[in-house]
């Protein structure tokens, strides 16, 4: 049985071997063989086979090379004469017959295969046929080692569409070929195949399929096979793509959840795939099917997953992308967030629930108050989206998430406390100042609007208190710095309801007293102008009034007569002085510190600086004076200030002299005048320039030649330029005698006109004695004769050429016998020429130029220069230039040739034809037109040249000109094929044809775009047209060099570099029912000769046959079938095709109609609503339709008949239309579009009321609507914004959107539509007030018809029949003062601003929407009424103020606005103020007014040193205070000025004030003591003159002796002194004193003295009578004009009487 199987196996191997090597073998790539099969060879004898020796007729084929163990070899016995297979051969080894064994197998009748070969198989072999034919023995050599066969691959994975290269290596490969094997199954060896389509001679092969590959070497004759190599496994990657998906697709999975991983093969078709998985987790088994299911996920399942599909053992897809699976071991916790924890008034809070860590797929459940199993539903809040809810109730909220079919819940979130906020309260401050100063008392109050009967507790946020405050008021009894900060409050009704925090009110408490700040818009008051002073408090705060002071810090501020008050804190002043200010606020005025002082100066018109002499530049050593002049200065004694370049001395005079000017005196000078607080402005600068050098005169002449009968003007000036000069002229030599009038005509200063030739000088001089400049440089003046000079040239050519001889001659017209010398102006000679001729023997280029001459009789008399003659010498031989008006002689015509030499004159011209010969053309050769022109009618080469002179001087020959004669024949260019545009690659031919050419032998010329080749043929062929061949082509025929046709007309060739593309257009893309569409094909470049081919379906198919379409014309067909259409054009033979056109899809419309419907059918949809768009096909029947949608929105619907929008957004807005498609090219028409509008905002309900007050027994109608207007709404009504809408018992429902209410309250509404209901936002609330029957009445206490300013009154609101009801109250008034909401309104201090009408109403405390009607108004009128209070001013040395002491009878004030003072005997001050109301409201005190007495008083007196009235400005003056006090101050008042203290104008030393000399001025002085006393007042006058009167400063008593004297500032008296009393001379002698031995009252009066025409000022001497009248200390009552007006103070005009005579003892000064 085993032998039988072996035989069968051998036969199969033999059959396979013969089939593999037979001719005409199968072309298939692979032939199936079985492992162990042996391949046999053909009969051809290889060169490696030993032939053996022919013994008999058999040959043994055996390898003559050494085999290796494991090889396979086939020995073949070849019969020499008998056909094959007819005899059987027997094989012998080492003489013994071989029996077939395991490794010895017969192959047919004449071959034996040894497989595998071993060393024992080596030996001598022979074979013998049955007929006795025997071969010679042959040796088979076998080596003991195995042959190495190795297979390698450049890679083991074949990418999609790629390949792998295999390399087979065989040990000792000489003569071997290569076999390759592929096995496609790991387990089934029957799948092993031999590769056929390979190159067996190559050890490399390229494969494109996966498998298990081996190789071996083989030789064909004899058949030797090596062992197979080890297998190499190659994996093939197929193009299909593996996609891994996760169900559910959550990026994070939590422990215990079930998930499925699914591997999908794209384009997998019907292939039976197995799957491979690659999880990174170690505890997950890799399945081989497409799904991997995890029943209960754990943390160990986390990792990266991927998959691939396998078609067989060696073909698979690439790995899919990884999916990362994250499994969390912990249950997730929900996280609840609120966009706010406070629900605003009328608003809501959005709560958002999410899962942490972030994951997807959750639904959310929200809970209120506590963690209960029942989540919130729609009535509890507005659900916005998954995880979001809008709530309007306070409370404690939780949430949790759940997902999956069997809900998997997260842990509950942490709770969030939501507080419902009512309208925020208001913090008010009393008094309402932004900044409070240390020690003030303030109160902050928390007020809640419409708080009803709710019992509120309060919370405060304050800067420093740690104690919780629950009252509505917070008082600070004494403000401190630590109280500064922000204060806010809120009210709380319960745990979840409170007001919002009020807006913060900022309190600033300053620890330091503020200081006033005074600013001026300028410190100088301009002429006729003023300065604005602004007082402010620093740091800035409110409530201040401002007080301004002048000269010193006194308690009396400036009033209206002193200044112009612009606004609070601003005044305009027009007087110079020292100014201060301060601020004050509050009932008891709280003052700031005084501001720093500002000095204001009154500016008078600026002076003018003049210069004598007034020269802008002064020379060293000159004397000059500068004077400061003040316009309209009157008698004012001015001191002066100067600004000069070098003076360090303070100049006070009005003149500034420089006796001898120096360079250092150069510069700018200006001045100003000053007196106390008045000064001029600085004058304008005057600039002084002192030069250190003597100036030099400069002489100029308007010409140096005096023309015939004319003259020359000489001008002398000083350089540098300056003024004040006179000029002196000199002729010949510099002499001391200047020219006078006979020598010239003097035109003006610095100019003279002369008519004589000669040498002239000048110099300048100015001042007395004359200061001379240096002499000017001389100028030589020549006098011109009437004779004229002329230059002539021989020969007279404008241009001379190098080497010619010429002569220039100077000729003087009408010269007679005068002996002349000559002067020449020539280009290059430095030699002084005196002859009348100038010869050039050999002209050179350097002789070129202008030549002129003149004749001279002596040094200062000559002719004028001749006109110049220009000589041009050229260094090169000129060249003739030949021009032709054309180079072609037209048929029957001629050409004009012109010869010229450029540039020069005097030439004759010679013309030549042909070569350059000495024989020029003559008349028969041409028509000579003029010198240099000839007309020729023969073609040829022409030249010319010029010549001039007796011995002719020739130019060079001109360049030749070729003249061509045109024949009458005409050339024409033709194009084959004749297309206007040629495409790249086409072959074309251009031909030049000559009309009526006869037998003439022509050569041709071409003008073509790009060829530089000289073409002479009549044809120009382009085998492959290119873009560069485009252009114009023309030609002509030539008979010889000078005879040709004219150029042909050009033919334009256009070659396009790109293949043209056909363009397909359709008159419609939809074929209407029963209709057709016309298609038009064209080539989109202007060209001709095209035919058109049409295609439907695939564009590379055959064109559409004519019977399938309706051809209309070339390029047009009509089609009635839908499909994809192309076209292209073609022309020529063979056809040159265009590119295919772009395709056009033609759709065949069916009769059915598509309609889009919207559910619900609302014109406007709001964001978040659910809607459905449906596409319906009318009469669609059972047809299976697919659907298409088009929309202008950004959201494209899917191709279904229904498009549901679960959550509408603005992006869904747009027009929608649809159509149904039966197949790719048959569809309905597009439906009519339906417009969808989605609004991004939730609509808001709008609530309106026909009235807000419900009349007694009546009702109010409320109307609710949705804005913007839309349809489908139902309306829900709320009172006090509860969660439950109102029902029928609460209101009367009138119609949709209208109700009638009879209860007061706060009403809201909202709209809702759809299922589930979609709600609008709540409307704004409307407060409805119910009017009660009770009546409110306003009463006034006290009930006076007139109220005066300052009085206290009470307004009361009373509710008739109010019973025990608790009321709140409201007031309205036409006054500017709004009452608080109490039943009583007290006005503690009535003012005019309280005047007006007042009415009130009551509101029930427990029901704020129920109130009475407004009461009838009561009218309140407040009038002003004032009383006057009078005070004596008492000095207070602790400050700069006066304290006040009430005068008798003034404690309650007076109704009169004047007060009489009785019995006053010495100096005193008075002031007043006004007041009104109870308690009294006072104005500020008036400014004090003084009554001065000259009498000495023992308690306080003032003396002057020196003891006189008049003083020189240089005197040292002091005043001394004496009396019953150790503390003193001295005060003064200047006429038309202001008060001031000694510290402002002197130095106080104890009780003595030393007056500064620069502050001295006429004034009244007095002392004030620390005990409150005033001294007598004295007058002191300061005299700026040189003479004064010495007179007593105090009054003298009758009977006393008095001496008055006259005193001079510096001089002594040398003549009589005159004394006057009341302008009457009373003494005239040499005495300098006036002595009165016993003075009497008649001696009282004005005294003055006079000496040497100088008069002193007058002074008053007062005489006290010895006794006084008994009736009164003062004969006349002194009425002090202290009148106070109603507004504040009417100030008396302050008049200073220097002296006033009195019949009594005293005299008084008023101010």
UniProtKB/TrEMBL annotation:
InterPro entries: Ig-like_dom, Ig-like_dom_sf, Ig-like_fold, Ig_Fc_receptor, Ig_sub, Ig_sub2, Immunoglobulin_dom. It comes from the Eukaryota. Keywords: Disulfide bond, Immunoglobulin domain, Membrane, Signal, Transmembrane, Transmembrane helix. Residues 1-24 form the signal peptide. Residues 69-128, 137-216, 239-326, 425-508, 607-689, 695-763, 788-872, 970-1054, 1060-1128, 1154-1237, 1243-1310, 1336-1421, 1585-1667 form the Ig-like domain. SMART domains: IG, IGc2. The chain crosses the membrane at residues 1674-1697. One of its GO terms (molecular function) is transmembrane signaling receptor activity. PROSITE patterns: IG_LIKE (PS50835). GO terms for biological process: cell surface receptor signaling pathway; immune response. Residues 277-300 have a biased composition (Polar residues). Residues 277-309 are annotated as: Disordered. One of its GO terms (cellular component) is external side of plasma membrane. PANTHER family: FC RECEPTOR-LIKE PROTEIN 4, IMMUNOGLOBULIN FC RECEPTOR. This is Ig-like domain-containing protein.
